[in-house]
Amino acid sequence: MRSNRISDIEDYVLKNKTVSLDTLCEVFNVSKNTIRRDINELTEKGTIKKVYGGVSIKEIKEEATVVPFDERNIRNISLKSSIGERCADYIVDGDIIFLDSGTTTLTIVDYLRNKNNVTIITNNLEVIIKALNYPNLNVITLPGNLIRKTISFVGVDTISVLSKYNITKSFMASTGISIQCGITNSHPLESEVKKLAMEKGIEVFLLVDSSKFDNSSLITYGQLKDIDYLITDRKPAKKYLEFCLSHNVQLVTCDE
Predict the structure, then answer these.
(1) Which CATH number fits the domain 2-57, given the four candidates 1.10.10, 2.60.40, 1.10.287, 1.25.40?
(2) N or C: lower Cβ tally within 10 Å for the chain?
(3) Rg of the Cα trace of the chain?
(4) What mean pLDDT, rounded, does the chain reach?
(5) Distances, alpha carbon 71 to alpha carbons 21, 137, 249, in Å
């Protein structure tokens, strides 16, 4: 019951931005000592902060730097590979897919070895290089200037070329996701490519490992309600289960 109350308190604060302790006591019918204990747990989680006489949403700080692709690629390797394998189950012969620039989406390529006539559209150099190993895959590369830290091509031409293609399935990556801020990314120009790829995909798959939940980055490029599939390594918090159910988003976990 306490865990449910804490989750409800978090949702209430996120909705109302700033709330007094007295209001929380009244709404949730508990003492100030109980509210203070619950608030301490939420502040440790990092979603809200204490202010004089109450609590408020914690401000999202802009990331000073983008973590290099190679450094991200060695984090949670087995989890990302499991997600990539699960995604490949949804890809059928003849699909035209967009593979977003991300270390999790990169893992999909190795699981397409037995697919026929699959076309990959991407702006990520690592995806292009990995796909060279599989002659059964058609690859369309998007133009642009190379961003070395993300190993992706981005620019005005990237958007222009991508807008011309039809895409059956878009497989998207994210620096962090939350119900409040949606699907976020650190790089402004990359975010524009991601946004268009979501719009062009007939079906949209969001690939995130469990470390990405309740984290937010500089720019929101999409909303969780606008995806069709949320694919992750294990079952997320209750609020995400309820969100997916109420917004007709299919939640797929690799531990099932």
Answers:
(1) 1.10.10
(2) N
(3) 20
(4) 86
(5) 42, 27, 31
Contact 84, 165 (CB under 8 A): no
Helix, strand or coil, per DSSP, at residue 188: helix
- Domain borders along the chain are 2-57, 69-253
Does the domain at 69-253 match CATH 3.40.50.1360? Answer given as: yes
pLDDT digits (tens, 9 = 90+) for 158-175: 999 999 999 999 999 999
Rounded distance between C-alpha atoms, residue 159 and residue 174, angstroms: 19
β-strand pairing of 182-185 with 176-178? antiparallel
Fold agreement between 2-57 and 69-253: no
Torsion angle in degrees (nearest 10) through CA of 184, 244, 239, 79? -60
- DSSP summary character for residue 124: B
Nearest to 79 by CA among 102, 107, 40, 59: 107
